[in-house]
Specification:
By secondary structure, the chain is of the alpha/beta class. It has five helices and ten strands; from the N terminus they run E-E-E-E-E-H-E-E-H-E-H-E-H-E-H. A seven-stranded mixed β-sheet has the order 4-6-7-5-8-9-10, sandwiched between helices. Bound molecules: guanosine-5'-diphosphate. The site of guanosine-5'-diphosphate has 19 residues, from helix 1.
Length: 228
């Protein structure tokens, strides 16, 4: 038996019985989330935890499925407040995972019902966090896979590039469309991004309903944590 491992956290066992018979058995090992706890909410990055632990932040337009995704990753329903929660706040929320690293739930941007002043306030909180937060290791930008490339998201991505903020893209709610439509929409985004970017960021596809993408995202985070 030969044993191999890849960066995605996939372990391959190659069984070689005889000349032409190699069987490959593939196991995904997933980071075990033993503990996920809410630590603090605030609007001021200076008041965020100062313990130097790495953090992975999640951002996107309101209703993109951010809270559901955080709960799915952490394996804990109700950890992040979903849109159906009365009084959902627009704060920077820190969740400590396995006492080792943080998931950060950032406010959703571009919510029309909030009015111009409200949107500007949220933008200030987001900007302050992105510009000041040294512990930020990767920003996950969430996009609803059902939509064509949206101006507000493309502008946000441009700013991330200008400010050299490391980010990845997550297409959410993939259970809501067919795989051919998903492929088509992702291609449209890629084409749009390639107009201004030489290289595409890592791209993930997820469904919180079906837990799709959980292994890939947790392994991605684990691999970064190991390298740092
Ligand atoms: P947020 O405002 O970005 O935090 O979005 P929520 O997590 O509150 O989700 C907004 C709505 O989309 C809720 O009604 C969720 O139940 C729904 N939703 C979120 N993720 C998924 C998903 O992966 N699949 C489906 N079918 N619905 C989802």
């Amino acid at each position: 038996m030969i044993f191999g491992s890849s960066v995605t956290g996939t372990v391959h066992y190659f069984f070689n019985w005889g000349k032409n018979s190699i069987f490959v058995i593939r196991f995904m090992y997933i980071m075990n989330i033993k503990k996920a706890e809410f630590i603090i909410s605030n609007t001021n990055p200076a008041k965020c935890p100062q313990d130097g632990r790495r953090e992975y932040a999640f951002i996107g337009r309101s209703n993109v499925g951010k809270s559901s995704l955080i709960n799915m990753l952490a394996g804990k329903k109700g950890l992040a407040m979903t849109s159906s929660t009365p009084g959902k706040t627009q704060l920077i929320n820190h969740f400590l995972i396995n006492d080792e690293w943080y998931i950060v739930d950032l406010p959703g941007y571009g919510y029309a019902q909030r009015g111009k002043k409200g949107r500007e306030k949220i933008q200030e909180i987001i900007d302050a966090y992105l510009n000041e937060r040294e512990a930020l290791t990767c920003l996950f930008l969430l996009l609803d896979c059902r939509h064509e490339p949206q101006k507000i998201d493309l502008e946000f991505i441009m700013r991330l590039g200008e400010e050299e903020i490391p980010f990845s893209i997550i297409f959410t709610k993939i259970d809501k469309i067919s795989s051919s439509k998903l492929k088509e929409n992702i291609e449209k985004y890629k084409t749009k991004l390639m107009e201004t970017w030489e290289e595409l960021p890592p791209i993930f596809i997820t469904s919180s309903e079906r837990k799709t993408g959980r292994e890939e995202l947790l392994n991605y985070i684990e691999n970064i944590n190991k390298e740092l």
